[in-house]
Amino acid sequence: MSTSPSSPTSTTSPTSTTSPSTPSFSATPATDDGAPIVRPLTTREAESLIEAAVQAAEGSGVRGSVSVLDAGGHLLGFRRDDAAVLISGETSTRKAFTALQLDAPTADLVELVRPDGLFHTLPTALDRPLLFLAGGVPLHRDGRLIGAIGFGGGAPDQDHRIALSAIAEAGLD
What we know:
By secondary structure, the protein is of the alpha+beta class. The chain has helices at 43-60, 87-102, 156-170; strands spanning 65-70, 75-80, 136-141, 144-152. Strands 2-1-4-3 form a 4-stranded antiparallel sheet. α1 (43-60) crosses α3 (156-170). The model is unreliable at 1-28 (pLDDT under 50).
C-alpha cells in the first residue's frame, strides 16, 4: 500500500518550522507573566566588584573585606585584606545580606532600627542576623534585584562609598 503526503499515515514532516514540542526562543526571554528574564549576577561580575572595591579601599587607605552575594543570598565572592581586622569579613557579609533582604542600602536603614524606629526589632528577628551599618548595597539589573555587595573595615561612610564606587566601576546599578 502506498501513502501519499495527504493521507493520515503520511511520514512526511509538517511544513511548519516549529512544532508544538520544539521550544521557541525570542531575543528577550520572558517569564509566564510576560516580564523579561533578567540575567543573574555572575561569578565574573562578582570578581569585578571585588577588584573595584579593593581599588577604592586602597585609594581611601581603608583595609577591609568585601562580600558579594547573589539574589538567593549565596556568597559569590569574598576577599579580606591581609591587614584588615578579622571581624570585617563577618560585617561585610552581613551588610550585603541585609541590603539584599531589604533591597535597600544599609546606610538608608540605620535610623529605622533605633529604639524608636519602625524596624527596631528587625535585627534579631531572623535566624541570620541583619546588620544595620552603612556599607551594604543591593545590586540591580534592568530594575530587578540580582544580589548585593557589602564592605566592612572602615568607618560606615567609607564602607558605603567603597561599595558604591565598586558598583559604578563594575557598571552595575
